[in-house]
Amino acid sequence: xxxxxLADALEYSLQDxxxxxxxxxxxQDQWVIVNFWATWCGPCIREIPELxxxxxxxxxxxxxxxxxFEKTPIDEIRSFVAELGVTYPxxxxxxxxxxxMEPLKGLPSTFLISPEGQVVHLHVxxxxxxxxxxxxxxxxxx
Length: 142
Fold this sequence. Notes:
There is one protein chain. By secondary structure, the chain is an alpha/beta fold. The protein has helices at 42-57, 74-84, 129-140, and strands at residues 13-16, 21-23, 31-37, 62-68, 90-92, 109-113, 119-124. It has a seven-stranded mixed sheet. Helix 1 (42-57) packs across helix 3.
């Protein structure tokens, strides 16, 4: 995939599963993995353990954030996430597209965001812990 580097930093504010507003800026100075997924997406569900393993291994330097890309009631998404034991924050997609990440080309879609808030890598399809680690090594070392 080509490197996507934008002049303007990405910013968003979305509601989490507890109804609190979360924003990208709260992870300043950290790399962020943003993963768009849905409860009805089999490959999305299969990659969740990979995302959790990556998040656990890089807790000091990277924040993983899931964005539920569906209009399912929040209670159902909350129950689904609890059943899977998801350990990273899950946000609910808003009404406005998150440019430049949207429109999505498919689910799951995963983005690597630099500490400066710029999208530096995107991937459509399931990811593995190894692939995420490789992306991070590639961009951190520059």
